[in-house]
Structure formats: structure tokens, C-alpha cells
């Protein structure tokens, strides 16, 4: 179930990256950076869950890489259909909906039901992480036009 959910999530990441690159390379780069920032801890967490479930390191790594490959499918689909402006809007809506679903149906319940001996510390750390992520996304959206090499 973890691998299937991760595959759908990675597919949505690919859709987002492809749609962003179809707008401009700067938008694509900013979106890729944002996806990288949220995918690194997500993939490490999925890997840890698979190991905790009793899978070998090799099998867990294979499942993780396999689910990550679905992002390329989303990328290719998005790049091929995003020449139409209406398709870009639909891709953005679908991707935003999938991201909201993952955040509200998967992450939020885990955050609410986290067991800790210091609940206030957990609360502060969770909110610090959320605010940091939102801040990074805000900075990326404000300054994506100024990204250059």
C-alpha cells in the first residue's frame, strides 16, 4: 500500500514538473527544487517503513526506486499534452488536488496522533517544519523569475 500510494504521489510530482517546464525553464527548475525538498524525506520515510515491515534492504530499495519511476511517466505525459493551455490548467488542478489529498489524508492524521512524552515539543517541531516548508515555497514563488545562472 505504501508503494502504490508513493507511486501515485510520484506520478503527480512528474505531472507538476512537466507542466512547470512547459511554462518556462525557470518555473520548471523552481518546481523541481520544491519537489526535491519534499521528496527526500518522503522517500527516506517510505524506505524506513518498508524496512520496518520486514523487507530486505535490497527489496525495499527496489520497491522505492520502482515507485519513483512513475514520476517519469507523469513527466512525459505532462510534457506531451501541455502544449494546450487548457491541458496545463487541468494538470495544475489535478496535481494540486493530489497534493492536498496526500497532505490532508496521510500526513495530517500522522501528525495529530503522534505519540510523544513531550507533546509541546512535538507540536513546536511539527509547526516549525510546516512553516519552513511554506516559507521555502513562498520564496520560490516570489523569486522564480530571478533564478539565473
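-> sequence recovered:
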Amino acid at each position: 500500500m505504501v508503494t502504490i500510494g508513493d507511486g501515485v504521489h510520484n506520478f503527480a510530482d512528474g505531472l507538476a514538473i512537466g507542466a512547470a517546464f512547459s511554462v518556462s525553464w525557470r518555473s520548471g527548475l523552481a518546481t523541481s527544487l520544491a519537489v526535491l525538498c519534499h521528496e527526500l524525506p518522503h522517500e527516506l520515510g517510505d524506505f524506513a517503513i518498508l524496512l520496518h515491515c520486514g523487507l530486505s534492504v535490497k527489496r525495499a530499495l527496489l520497491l522505492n526506486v520502482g515507485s519513483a519511476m512513475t514520476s517519469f511517466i507523469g513527466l512525459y505525459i505532462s510534457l506531451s499534452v501541455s502544449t494546450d493551455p487548457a491541458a496545463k490548467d487541468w494538470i495544475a488542478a489535478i496535481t494540486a488536488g493530489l497534493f492536498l489529498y496526500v497532505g490532508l489524508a496521510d500526513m495530517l492524521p500522522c501528525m495529530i496522533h503522534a505519540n510523544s512524552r513531550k507533546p509541546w515539543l512535538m507540536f513546536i517541531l511539527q509547526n516549525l517544519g510546516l512553516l519552513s516548508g511554506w516559507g521555502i515555497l513562498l520564496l520560490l514563488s516570489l523569486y522564480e523569475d530571478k533564478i539565473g545562472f
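The helical segments are 2-23, 25-52, 57-68, 70-81, 85-112, 119-143.
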